[in-house]
Amino acid sequence: MKEELEGLLVDIENRSFDSDDAVEEFRIEYLGRKGKMKDLMAQFREVAPEHKRELGPLINKVKTAVEEKVAAEKASFNKNSKATSSGIDASRPAGGFPHGTHHPLQVVRREILGIFSNMGFGVVEGPEIEDDWHVFSGLNFPPEHPARDMQDTFFVERDPDLLLRTHTSSVQVREMERREPPMRIIMPGRVFRNEAISARAHCMFHQIEGLYIDENVSFADLKQTLLHFAQRFFGPETKIRLRPSYFPFTEPSAEVDVYWGLETEVDKRITKGTGWLEILGCGMVDPNVLEASGIDSKKYSGFAFGMGIERITMLRYQIGDLRLFFENDKRFLDQFAGER
Ligand code: PHE
C-alpha cells in the first residue's frame, strides 16, 4: 500500500488541466463519494496495526495534496480566463494607455527656443491679428510694397487696417515700442499668407523671430549668434554662409545658409546642386525702424532674424511635404513618438 500511496502523490503532482471542469473531475475522482480517498480509507482499516503508524500520515498527505492542487488550479483558471457573467474580466491586467506624441513642429520650436534661452534671449509673443503699422509701416515697408498686396496678406473685411500678420517681425515693433533697450528677445508664432496650398507652401505656418538691441551691437555679433545656433541645432561641425539680401526693415540684410553636403542624390536635389540650404533671413535693424518705435538710433543698434519652423523641421526630419504638419494623420505623428 505504501508504494500505491507514493505513486498517487506523483500522479497528483504531475496532473495538469486545460479547464476548470477538468479540475472538478479530478476533485471528484479523489474526494468524491465514490472516489479514491474512500477506497484508501477502506483499505487502511484492514491494515495491520504496526503499519498504521507509517501509512496514516501518508494517506493524509495524499488528501492534502489533492486539496491543495484543486485550490491552486481553480484559482488560476478564475484569474486567467474566467469572465464574469457580464462578460467583463475585471481581473485582467490593463493594456496600458496610449500616449500622445509631441508634434514635430513643437519639438523643433522648443529646441530652438531652448538654444536662444541659453544665450539670454527671453521669449515674447504677440497677436496674430495685427494692424498695418506693426506688420508693415512700422517696419519701413513703403506704401506700395508688394507684400501688402491682396495676393499675400489676409485682410479683415470689416476694417481695412486689420490683417493677419504675415511675419513675426510685428512682435519686434510691439516690443521696441513697449520698452527700452537693451533687449534680447525671441518671438515664436503663427503667421499667415494668402498662398495656394502645396507641398512647399501653406496659408499658415510658424516662424521664430529674434531681436537684439543694445549699444554697439554689430554684424559680427549677429553672425556669431547665428553660427552658435546652427552648430547647436545641426551639429558642432556645421558651417554657415551669409548671402546679401533685402528686407525693408534691416540694413544690411542677409540670408543664412547651412552647409548640408553633396554626397547623396537627395543632398543634390534638396540643395539644388549647391550643397547649401537656406534657413533664415536676418540683418541689422534699419535705423528708420528703431526711430519709428522711439529708440535712439544714434545710441543703439541691433540685429534681427526670422526663420520658418516648418522649413527647419523639414530639413531635420527629411519631410518632403509641408501639408503633413497640418493634417494630423496619426501615422505621420506617431513617427515622432521618441522626440521630446
Ligand atoms: N520677416 C522676414 C520674413 O518673414 C524674416 C526676417 C526677420 C528677416 C528679421 C530679417 C530680419 O521673411
Write the layout of secondary structure elements.
Elements: H1 2-14, H2 20-31, H3 36-46, H4 49-80, H5 104-118, E1 122-123, E2 129-131, H6 132-135, E3 162-164, H7 169-178, E4 183-192, E5 204-214, H8 219-234, E6 240-247, E7 250-259, H9 265-270, E8 276-285, H10 287-292, E9 301-308, H11 309-317, H12 324-327, H13 330-333
Helix pairs in contact: 1-4, 2-4, 3-4, 5-11
Bound molecules: phenylalanine.
Phenylalanine is lined by residues 167, 169, 209, 247, 250, 281-283, 304-306.
Task: Report what the structure shows.
It is a single chain. The protein has 340 residues and is α+β, with helices and mostly antiparallel strands. It has 2 domains: 2-82; 104-336, BirA Bifunctional Protein, domain 2. 42% of the residues lie in helices and 19% in strands. The protein has 13 helices and 9 strands. It has helices at 2-14, 20-31, 36-46, 49-80, 104-118, 132-135, 169-178, 219-234, 265-270, 287-292, 309-317, 324-327, 330-333; strands at 122-123, 129-131, 162-164, 183-192, 204-214, 240-247, 250-259, 276-285, 301-308. Strands 1-4-5-9-8-7-6 form a 7-stranded mixed β-sheet, with helices on both faces. It has a two-stranded antiparallel ribbon with strand order 2-3. A hairpin with a 2-residue loop joins strand 6 and strand 7. It is rod-shaped and about 120 Å long. The model has no long low-confidence stretch (mean pLDDT 91). Bound molecules: phenylalanine. The site of phenylalanine (PHE) has 11 residues, from strand 8 and strand 9. Phenylalanine binds at residues 167, 169, 209, 247, 250, 281-283, 304-306.
